[in-house]
Amino acid sequence: MLKPPDFEYISRLLKENSGLALTPDKAYLINTRLKPLLDRNNIADVPTMIQHMRAGRLTHLKDEVVDAMTTNESLFFRDKRPFEALTQMMLPQLLKVRPRGRRLRSWCAAAATGQEPFSIAILLDQNARQLAGRSVEILATDLSQAALKRARMGEYTAFEVGRGMPSDVLSKYFRKTEKNHYIISPEIRSRVTFQSRNLLDTFQPMGVFDSLFCRNVLIYFDRPTKANVLDRLSRVLAPDGYLVLGGPETTLGLSDAFARHHEWRNVYIRSDKKAPEGVAIERVCA
């Protein structure tokens, strides 16, 4: 068990560099997740590492500590409903109001090892007829350099593709390797651009997006950080665009910039603009 000063050092490091709010009941994660980092650097234990960092030594480990403590869990087609919302409601509505030749832009924040943006790319390929020649840009970002490295490779274990991946999709879009891994097709991989980005940084240089997927990351932030991120997300979402949050997440009591879609749970639109034609909204934000 870490002493309180050491726990406070790690929790402050995470808060300042990633927004992650580490509560005392999660203190056990520190030793578990940092052990591989300690082994690689031949450090006896976490208190010893912290002692070195406090003294100005091993400061290069800061990013690696944050990376190791960041949750990078992801599944293909996770929760299903957000992807059904994409193909059955979001995409048809956007195509009604986007002229031919207009590029659609989608941002997957906290994309981890790439399963979510690749799921979107696969669905768009399956619905290519709807797009009628329109191009789609999928930007996927994450703070973790290790996760991004894996995402860019597009290679997954049999266990990873077995979690939520339909067999027909697996056979069409993946190639099995001699190691019993699965590599996503070059065509799908080329449709996703991966970038390193911290959700605490400004979003303005990224431009405006038609859809934002920011799922299962706000749950790790404290209320002020959640409110701040939501406010800044609203500024880069098109007036008639869509924000998709994770199952346990909401904008309620955090931001008045969004209104929840009446039918599709965890899909939000900008509350300061009229909904796209044919879309009803339910205001749930204070």
3D structure, described in words:
The protein is α/β, with parallel strands linked by helices. The chain is built from twelve helices and eleven strands. It folds into two domains: 4-69, no CATH class; 81-152 and 185-282, Vaccinia Virus protein VP39 (Rossmann fold, 3-Layer(aba) Sandwich), CATH 3.40.50. The strands form two sheets. It has an eight-stranded mixed beta sheet. It has a three-stranded antiparallel beta sheet with strand order 3-5-4. α2 crosses α4 (62-69). The longest helix is centred in the N-terminal third of the chain and has 17 residues, at 81-97. The radius of gyration is 20 Å and the shape is globular. The protein starts with a helix and ends with a strand.
Keyword list:
12 helices, 17% strand, single chain, Rossmann fold, eight-stranded mixed beta sheet, alpha/beta, 11 strands, three-stranded antiparallel beta sheet, 286 residues
In whole angstroms, how far apart are the ends? 40 Å
Radius of gyration: 20 Å
Q: Tell me the number of structural domains.
A: 2
Low-pLDDT residue spans: 274-286
Shape verdict: globular
* Percent of residues in beta strands: 15-25%
Within the CATH hierarchy, at the fold level, what is the topology of the largest domain? Rossmann fold
* Biggest sheet features: 8 strands, mixed
Main structural class: alpha/beta
Largest sheet strand order = 6-2-1-7-8-10-9-11
What's the architecture of the largest domain, going by CATH? 3-Layer(aba) Sandwich
Supply the number of helical segments. 12
CATH superfamily of the largest domain: Vaccinia Virus protein VP39
Mean pLDDT, nearest integer? 89
**CATH class group of the largest domain:** Alpha Beta
User: Care to count the β-strands?
Assistant: 11
